[in-house]
Amino acid sequence: NASNSAFYLNYQVWMMDWNKEIADVVLRLQAENLIDMLTDTPREKVTVMVAPDNVVEVTKSLRRFKPEVVTSDLSNLLEGNRRASRNADDSANEPFDFLKYHDITTIYNRLDEIAKNHSEVVEVHVLGQTHEGREIKYVRISHNISEDSTRTKPVLWIDGGIHAREWVSPSTVMYIIETLLGYRELQHLDKAMKYLEKYQFYITPVLNPDGYQYTRNHLRLWRKNRDPGCYRKVETIFGNCFYKVCYGVDLNRNWSDGFGGPSTSSNLCSLVYPGEQAFDQLETKAVKEKIEALQKETSVDLFLTFHSYSQLFLIPYGYTGDKVPAEHEYHKAQGDRYVNAVFARHGKRYINQRSSDLYPAGGISADWAFISRGIVDSYGVELRPSDWRIGFMLHETEIIPTGQENVDGLMALIENLKINVTQNGSYN
């Protein structure tokens, strides 16, 4: 809305070449809450958002890198995008489609509708609740879903929306759900039916519903959840915060492997504040407990988490660039399959790379799934676009093609999961 855009009045966006020297400075500035990196995983260029009050200090640190000021008033860019889009608030009876970005209620209503219409293959469950009391809903999809034998099928885990402002992520995950059920991409129907016979899918479209709704109603570029914390942890005798309350934890820094490491900050106000300890957030704790419970009953053979933006397929590790896992060649092969399938659809080039290339990030979900839970096929995807000028404000006309190309990538990925290993140890 208009007030949402007005918050960013005179916020600047700077762009620079991206290399290790610049990364060290940019990551320090972000940890100090002086800038906001406008993508977690830059490619050739990095773009940062600078609040008016921080321009002088940030200039001192970045002047030698000759940043280009690509906009001196971000509010104009956001407002122009808003006017060009259909993204008005959903009404109570808004039908779900892929022509706009929907609020959490409309997304959840669609999940309930799908489960009602396909009760033989779909169940809707609640993973947990958020600080603000919202449910985190997921769907379980498999043939003959009510039969007890279905619970021993291998699990494929897919989630989106862990970062609030990445709206195309929940839309893409919803597109995957609808494809598995035959609403979309009918050329994949036979393959989808085969996978529903073999696997059970656990799919969470919006892992951070509090943050997601906050970006719709208040600040469009909010990243974290909405858990409040007392800055400097100084409270009055009445329990009130003496200094100020800073809201939110970066949920993709709140996992145990590499927790508190690179690309995190102890500053509660920072966009990459990881929390006081791993899994101290309701959202991440709910995922942890669900996957641990599932692994007591069966295997979890895929962990795939969708983000935006930059057009990347990210393989382990994220927390360190100093070593590679034993499965590195297999991960690269899987990534190649994914990005090649994506490219074949609409010609969009996604890059297959380690999450830690150029700079590492501690406490991310895919590292936890791979290292702590032993899920070999654990990956992240950064969706469209590659251009910061569009960035998180990806136009609604791109929702469907983004969904299409990533459905193609997912189908190629599942076809070659490590569980399809041959007797002699080579991969299919």
SSE arrangement:
Blueprint: H1 2-6, E1 12-17, H2 20-31, E2 36-37, E3 45-50, H3 55-62, E4 68-71, H4 74-84, H5 104-117, E5 122-129, E6 135-141, E7 155-160, H6 168-180, H7 189-198, E8 200-204, H8 209-217, E9 228-230, E10 245-247, H9 282-297, E11 300-308, E12 312-315, H10 328-346, E13 351-354, H11 365-372, E14 378-383, H12 399-415
Parallel strand pairs: 7-8, 7-11, 11-14, 12-13
Antiparallel strand pairs: 1-3, 1-4, 2-3, 5-6, 6-8, 9-10, 12-14
Helix pairs in contact: 6-12, 10-12
Task: Kindly describe this structure.
The chain is an alpha/beta fold and 428 residues long. It has twelve helices and 14 strands. An eight-stranded mixed β-sheet has the order 5-6-8-7-11-14-12-13, sandwiched between helices. Strands 2-3-1-4 form a four-stranded antiparallel β-sheet, covered by helices on one side. The protein is globular. The C terminus is likely disordered.
Features of this protein?
alpha/beta, globular, single chain, eight-stranded mixed β-sheet, four-stranded antiparallel β-sheet
The strands making up the biggest β-sheet line up spatially as 5-6-8-7-11-14-12-13
Low-pLDDT runs of 5+ residues are 420-428
Note the overall shape. Answer: globular
Q: Give me the number of helical elements.
A: 12
Secondary structure: number of strands: 14
Euclidean distance between termini CA atoms: 50 Å
Biggest sheet architecture: 8 strands, mixed
- Radius of gyration (CA) equals 21 Å
Q: What number is the mean pLDDT?
A: 91
Helix content: 25-40%
Category by helix and strand content: alpha/beta
Content of β-strand: 15-25%
H/E element sequence: HEHEEHEHHEEEHHEHEEHEEHEHEH
